[in-house]
Give the backbone structure.
Amino acid sequence: METQARQDSSEFEKMYAETLTNRLERGSVVKGKIVAIREDGIVVDVKYKSEGVIPASEFSMEDFSRIRQGDDIEVLVERVNDTGEGVVLSRDKVLKMQAMGKLEEAFTKGLSVDGKIIEKTKGGLIVDVSGIRAFLPASQADIKPVRDLDQMIGRQLQVRILKLSQPRQAGQGHSPSLVVSRRVILEEDREKKKESIIGVLKDGALLKGVVKNVTDYGVFVDLGGIDGLLHISDISWRRVNHPSEFFSVGQEHEFLVLKHDEASHKVTLGFKQKKDDPWLTVDQKYSSGMKVKGKVVTITDYGIFVEVEEGLEGLVHVSELEWVPRSKHPSKYAALGDEIETVVLNVSRDDRRMSLSLRQLAPKPWTLVAERYKVGEQVKGKVKTLTDFGAFIRLSEGVDGLVHISDISWTKHVKHPSEVLKKGQKVDAVILSIDSDKERMALGIKQLVPDPWLSEIPAKFKLGDECKGRVIKAVDFGVFVELEGCVEGLIYSSEVDQSKPLEDGAEIMVRIIKINTDDRKIGLSMKNVKANEN
């Protein structure tokens, strides 16, 4: 009897196991209860003769901290093996099956789903949509081509399912094929915004927009489905070198609609027109002689542009930088961004021009010269320019005085100032005359010493005297000779002795045949010189 009972029990257990085996088919989804949490996985009771195990790899650290023994869990049967491995379960595949159900519904109804870009692949990006890998083609990532797909990795976004191919046997390693698009959503959104913005687009309207692109000639602005162009000439009332000085991609600003073509929806925008044109009232605010402060905005070879108020610029021409003409570049007087004070010279509202001056802030040099110097006073200066008729001497005040060639020496015949003076040479001179109105000053170098023709020369040289001389230069009408190193005389061509050497520097004996103290001239002869006869 006991032996028969054992046989009956064993047979019953065999039949029960066969029943459960048929019930736990591979790929079926069942509910179970967590009975143990181990390092290698989660043990689940699925009402089979042995518990099933979900591998630990299907759980994150966060999952482990959240689940508890006794919790119910829905799983998919991976394998049923009564010989030793038991029941192998999967939680991930259940979640994916549930997600696929939602994705099928979204695909059927044309709904958008959330996703996260996780990596870049050939031809596009991989998006994690509810735990399922979906392919986002590069052409569907945005409305316009994306140059750098790497920059999109990690972004959360909404996508629309374009293609969904379900696996035939979800529990046997097959993955669903999922293709999604972001571009479709963006295009739909743009069309909605476009319909909305068209209703308020009209000339004179103030609209907010986002800068899409900055070019050399202007700025393209997204007004919400419709693009507008802000030309460089409509950015500011002041000078604009490049639109990037005012705008950058992604910035939001308020713009004024200047013109809207309802047929083509071409929109021309303005930015400076939000404020009044400062040139309309410039002649009411500014007048000649007024001192104004402003910021240096541009420096060119011909002058400095100063912004005296927003959108209103004046030019300090190079001729108005300082009283004394100099070769310094305008950048030596101010730097970009400097705040400087200037004097208004003139204003033209019609020509939109304002002339400014820096030098008018300082007294005129000729006014200072007239106050500081008097005729007969000795001054110091530097030779600035040499000409055929004289030399210009620059004084410390920056003005130039002229030393005429006739006022260089009392006794020497100077044919060109360069024979005596050099450019840059420091010299002393005497003021002969001053005319501050005409900005002229006459100087003399020879006047630094008494006129030797008044007493010294007449006393030293007498008519008929014979003296030694040195040939200076031969000319058509005679030969100039230096007498005893202090005065020059002229041997008339008719009085030249051709038998004597007359090279420059040669020493000869001459006789004085004429003295004219009024004209400061001495006439010489080489003939009938007793010293030569001896």
